[in-house]
UniProtKB/TrEMBL annotation:
Its cofactor is Zn(2+). The keyword Zinc applies. Gene3D superfamilies: Cytidine Deaminase, domain 2. The keyword Manganese does not apply. Belongs to the cytidine and deoxycytidylate deaminase family. One of its GO terms (cellular component) is cytoplasm. This is Cytidine deaminase.
Length: 158
């Protein structure tokens, strides 16, 4: 019997969480773990109790900021870290699994929170048409291991 690795389980969960997003443009999920235990989960979207983009702007999504990003929502990484901190979790040495590599502002937050490893499934740079994954570059430069996730060959579910 083949068992899924914890890395595969956590990345699968991040993918499932992404499908909870109300974003019209992109659905991103994230899982924060420590010692094979889940600390926090999240997905991109507006702060709780404010609005749902797919309901208010089903055709176009919410208004864009100057960089073309959502002006009203939190990224999956932000939501995941904020929920963990709100509930008193210790993040030093934690690992994050996310379906899209972190943007530069999220990378700075990840670094500042003490997270030491990030697995990502897809490239933010390719999604946004940028020349490089600035967030991944930042994390690796400052000692946070950020690597593209390679699924278990025999057990991949995506």
């Amino acid at each position: 019997m083949n068992k899924l690795s914890f890395d595969q389980i956590f990345m699968n969960l991040a993918g499932d969480l992404a499908r909870r997003s109300h974003c019209v443009k992109a659905q991103v999920g994230a899982v924060l773990t420590k010692d094979t235990r889940i600390i926090s989960v999240g997905y991109n979207g507006p702060p709780a109790g404010t609005h749902n983009c797919d309901e208010e702007w089903p055709e176009s999504g919410c208004p864009r900021d100057a960089r073309g990003s959502c002006s009203l929502a939190l990224h999956a990484e932000e939501n995941t870290i904020l929920y963990a901190v709100k509930n008193g979790a210790k993040l030093d040495g934690a690992t994050m699994y996310t379906t899209l590599s972190p943007c530069l502002p999220c990378a700075r937050l990840i670094y500042s929170a003490g997270i030491t490893k990030v697995y990502y499934q897809h490239s933010y740079a390719l999604y946004k048409g940028l020349p490089s994954d600035e967030g991944v570059d930042f994390l690796n430069r400052f000692g946070v291991e950020a690597v593209r996730f390679t699924p278990d060959a025999e057990n991949a579910t995506f």
